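Hi V.,

You were right to ask for the full record rather than a summary. Here it is.
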Amino acid sequence: MLVVPGVGHFDLAMKKLEEKGLKLLIQNWIQKGNPYIGICLGMHILFESSEEGNEVGLGIYKSKVLQLPSQILPHMGWNQLHFQSSRWVDWSKWSQPTAWAYFVHSYGVIQEVAESHVCATTKYEQIQMVAAIERENCFAMQFHPEKSSQFGLWLWQQLLKKKAAS
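Predicted structure:
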């Protein structure tokens, strides 16, 4: 399993991955069906591009990361998640009536521009954003599970169980 966390700048991250020969390595890793988990910037680099710069992303998702159209940036704090179907996580096993996650970002994926792989959303300043997105072997989230208290711990357990079983 490859876990790519991140707080950083899209262009700088993609330049460093390219310089170190890791961009192609990660693309091949994912294309071969190996498990990938991305957090924040680790999610952004999965897309084709970002308004945060001019570099080309990994292109796993055929959409663009956009700057949040808000007067209040960065988006920092707790937001409620709204679950959609997921092959990676059985959301119904979360024991609370709601799930809250911690976000820190100025760029994200607006639900309207995302592909059909969205498995959780959140609302910020009346904007419906992608909170988590998945494919067969990729699971990526905009929020930070390591800062998301009990829900974050539970989610890590679910992700690790899923990959251990496959």
